[in-house]
Amino acid sequence: MSHCTSTLSTCAALAVLASASHAFADVTVVVNATKDATIFATTAGADPGTASGKGPGLFAGSDGNSRPKRSLVTFDVASAAIPANATILGVTMTMQLAQIAGQSDGSNLPQRTFRLFSLRQNWGEGPSGLPTKATLDGTGQGFTRQIGDSSWSFANFDQSPWTAGGDVVPAEIAAVTFAAPYVLSQSFTWSTAGMLSDVRGWVAGTVPNNGWQIRNDAEATATSFLAFWSKDGAAVNGNPALAPQLSITYTTP
To answer: What does the buried/exposed string (b/e) look like for 51-64 if buried means 16 or more CB atoms within 10 Å of the residue's CB?
Structure first.
């Protein structure tokens, strides 16, 4: 039974406050990549012995000689300190375009589809590419592979081999098509139910957080790559906003 003896408007206000105390509040947190890298193949699909753990760019697609490149990225979702009783509602990965294969004007290029795959094996970022350059010029073939690098044949050179091209769950968790014009510093975003499922598992600790691999559907086509800024490229340019970012929206009681 209600014991409110004030005016009707006061009682209504108290009821609203009581209801609000049990409402849910949406929160969005953004975390940067904790490690990222590019792996490279020869035209024949072999490991060329190069890697890019600390290079400024993340490449996906092929160069003018039809040599494929794929990117790897991991986000430390634990650093977001999401409460155990939270419900994660949505996730979005954002990357900033840094280079277009063969040109700077991407207005007339065909559309590109980029797929995300869940990595099944932990991998090393490695030191290749140090000292990191402030531009991507001359970095598209990677650097001499070093101990701790991930590469086409190794999750962690030279201790942990993996399936050639990266050990991933075969079914992609995202497939997003981007159409021209492509503009340098343009933001590319991915947000799918598969990504949401992965992040929920990472936060709950029920799925190992090995991160994602990024592939370009046109990687068998010469001069097809697009490259994005890596976290190391963002750091050397003094602009953290260039780094790959993961936005997580959740709600708590």
So the answer is: bbbbbbbbbbbbbe
